[in-house]
Amino acid sequence: MSVVTNISEWPRNSAATRALREKSWTVVLRCYGCRRRFAVRRVTVDRLALTPHVPCIHCSAQPSSSPRMQIHTILDMREDTQHGSERSSTE
C-alpha cells in the first residue's frame, strides 16, 4: 500500500476515480419553499454539492446563502444509465 504524502495527489487518477467522475446522476430534490419534488438530471460528482442550489421548477424558489441557509433537500440520487430513453415505463 502506498502512502500519500501530498494531499493534493489524493485521490489519484486511478481507473476507479476516473470512472466515478465520468458517471452522471439524477438527483431528486424537495423544494424548501413549496415542498414539491423535482429532478435534476445528468449531474456529475464535481457538481453534486451545487445541486441543492438550483431554482425550483415549480415555484422558482432560489436558494440563498443567508444565515438561515434555505436550500432544497436531496431526497434521492440514482445513477443515469447509458440507455435512459430505452427504460420501460413500469420502472
SSE ordering: HEEE
Q: State the shape.
A: elongated
Low-confidence stretches: 83-91
Beta-strand proportion: 15-25%
- Strand order, main sheet: write it out: 2-1-3
Radius of gyration: 17 Å
- Biggest β-sheet: count, sense, barrel? 3 strands, antiparallel
Termini gap: 42 Å
How much helix is in the residues? Answer: under 10%
- In round numbers, the mean pLDDT is 78
Helix count, DSSP H or I runs of 4 or more residues: 1
Q: Which structural class fits the helix and strand makeup?
A: mainly beta
Comma- or semicolon-separated keywords:
91 residues, disordered C terminus, mainly beta
Written description of the protein model:
With 91 residues, this protein is mainly beta. The chain is built from one helix and three strands, in the order αβββ. The protein has a three-stranded antiparallel sheet. The protein is elongated, with a radius of gyration of 17 Å. The model is unreliable at 83-91 (pLDDT under 50).
Indicate the topology.
Elements: H1 15-22, E1 24-30, E2 37-44, E3 73-79
Antiparallel strand pairs: 1-2, 1-3
Short description:
This protein is mainly beta and 91 residues long. The chain has a domain at 21-80. 9% of the residues lie in helices and 24% in strands.
